[in-house]
Structure formats: C-alpha cells, structure tokens
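Render this sequence as a predicted structure.
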Amino acid sequence: MKVIVVGSSHGGFETVRELLVDAPDTEIQWYEKGDFLSFLSCGMQLYLEGVVTDVDSVRYATPEALSDLGVHVFTRQEITAVDPAGHTVHVTDLATGEQRDESYDKLLLSPGAVPAPIPVEGSDLDGITAMRGRDWAIQLKAKTVDPAITDVVVIGAGYIGIEAAEVFAKAGKKVTVIDVAARILSTYLDPEFTKPITAELAAHGVTAATGQRVQSFEGLEGHVTTVVTDKGSYPADLVIEAAGIKPNTEWLKGTVNLTDKGFIAIDSHLRTSVPDVYAVGDATLIRFRPTGAEASIALATNSRRQARFAAKNIAGQDVEVPEVSGSSALSVFSLKFASTGVKESTADTFGVATQSVVVTDSFRPAFVPVEAGNAKVTFTLTYAPDDHRILGGQVLSTADLTQNINAISLAIQAGLTLEDLAYADFFFQPGFDRPWNIINVAAQTALGMAAPETAPHTEVTDLVNA
C-alpha cells in the first residue's frame, strides 16, 4: 500500500508515526511545501524568549530521521491538486519548477490553516507580520532586539496574540493588544478570569484595547507607523496580526466537500467525501463532547488525536475518533490558567443551558503560608442544570494548577456529574493539596453540600445562563 501524507505539522507527523507502527510495510510519501519539516508554531514563544535557543529544534522530526525509517520525505514540493478518480496528486517542485503526478492508494490531507489577513487600507505596508511558522519566528526574534522598534501593536487577543504581547513586553517594548471582542481571551475564559489577566498585562506595560475594530494602517515611506481603529489611533513600529486563522483549503474546492467556511467535511472515521482520502487538523471540524456538535477547535492535541485514528483506518482498522472537550492552557507572566469545555460566555454559541459555580480559595490548607507557595486559586465548574452533567471548567492561579483541567476534561468525556465529582478520590498532603481538592469543593458547593473549614475563606459566586 502506498500512502501520501500532505503537511508536516501535528497531523501529518502523527499520521506518519502511526502508520510506521500499524502498517510498517506501507510505502509512505510525506510532503511539505516549505523548506523545513514539522516546525511547531506552538513552541515559538519559548524560542522568542530565549528559553529555547535553537529555532531548528522546535520540531517533531528531521527528514534524515524519518528517511532512516523508510519514509520518503519531500520538502519544497507542493501538492497543488488531487485527482480522486485517478488516485493521483499533482506535485510541483518549488526548487526547480518541475511538475509530476504521483499515484496513491490512500491520501491523508493535513493542510492546516493560515493566518486570516485583515483586509483594510495599508495592509501591504512593511512592518506588518504574522506569528506562525519558522520564517516568522526568525524574523520576530530579530525584532525583539531591534532598537528602532519601540511600539508594538498586536491585533487579536487570543492565545497567539497574548503570547506575542508577552514576548515583546519582556523585550522592553510598549505593547498594545487590539481585539474586536469586549474582553481578551474571551473564547477561552469567563470574565472572572480575564479581568485579573488584563490587570496582569497592564502591570507589565501591555494595554488591552478591546472592543475595537481595525479600520486602516497608516505608514511613512512604505513602513507602518499607526494602527487606526474605530475608537482611536495607536503608534506602531511593528504590527503582529493574530486575529484568527482560516483553513488552507482553497486549492481543494471542487475536489472534496467543504463547509461554507472552507473546512474539509469528514466523517467519524476521518474520511472525506471521496474514496480513500482522509483529512485531519485545523482544516477540519471536530466533534465537541459537551454538545455532540461539530466545532472548530484548532489545537495540536486534536490534530494528533485525529491523525492517530486516521492512520489506523488507513491501515484497515475500523475505529471512530473520540470526541474532544477542547482543553488548553497558557501562562501570562505570573498567572497560569487552563480551560476546557463550555464556558458561560460561550454557552449561547453552542446552544446549551448551563449553570456554573465559581470558587476562590487557597489550594493548600489555610495554615500553609503564602510564602511557602500557598497561592490563591480561582476555579469554575460548569454543568447542565437538569442532570448535573459536567460541561466545562476553568482554573487560574500563580501556582501551576492547570492539571486540574485534565480531570475535568476526563469527567466531560466520561459523562460524569456533580455528584460524581463531589466526593471523587483525590489525594491530600498539605505540601501539595488540601483535604478537599478544589474540584471537590466546587462540586460540593454547587450541590449545597460544602461545609466551612476551620478558618473559612472560600468565596463563591453562582452564575446562571438558562
């Protein structure tokens, strides 16, 4: 069997890796149109801040290592068309311009997504960049130490935008983050969490200009100098566009079925609308466990999970890809947060009724002093009001308590309820935790079963979104 894999990031890499295990005799051709295999944009912040010093190490695999395993690796070679009837793909060698057709028995598409440009006047000025891919990483690294750059404007207050803001604030630049939404990180967190994060950003010189829409870019001698919104103007020596992504599927129109927003239509086995062609990654939608509906959830974990199951199906197994709850985490200076599932602020988008309890407490017993690491933690548990099924969770602290969200993700996947979590067996040791884990406390509070500690200090807020 001959399998062609298109794309070398999370989905493409995981497909190749799994095929080597499940079908070791498979002839695998792996294509990357760039000159660098499997760069991980999610590791870019670590490189820009100097935690990782070698940009070429921010990857899953090298061509040499995969070639040694028998994989035929092609870089700077772009697949520009697919002929499902003939089971062939059209390949252009970007180095020489030569073109050829390659046959396949099975084809895996992992074309990913590309930054969504902001179509306003001045968008072609120099000094306007993206933050995705190795080439941008190298360019942005140089910008962090460029004395000519004083003012940096980041457009988009999602994960990538906030990462960019932190990088350049740490580099001593004056940073403004513009977003059309009323709050930063509004897709991931409710207001109880975004408020302290916004304050943390401000404490480090980052201004959040939310609820504003970019109208134009102004420049001088071809270089950007100002970002103009519907509410003000912001000086800019550098603009980083992080206002979202769109699926890289324009080249697949008329070949496989696409949604109205350009995502590749797939079934539960990752099959596209044409035989023997599978698709994974950011160019596809994924089944959201809390609602059962499809959603765009662009996370590396989802791409790799999909790819595992696509490879298994390509190898002849008959397995459905699991649903996901969309778990993610990020640090913003001293704060660490994570979230999963439905939030109160996204419940309407998903069309579900929710109820939440917000608990603020210390994550260790009250007798453990702050200077010994007993940090404040804010935790939200979101559930269905009718059957108490767990729908989501959020956590924020200066301590790293993000792993709690993995427990909530598992609870969502398993269909657990408040009653299940209220007395779930979590360990206790004062150096690590409290007698009742914050998850227990939240579930007990939601059920009206929480008893005060000897030194009560728990703050509780109930939120309802019918």
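Summary. The first strand starts at residue 2 and ends at 6. Residues 454-458 have pLDDT under 50 and may be disordered.
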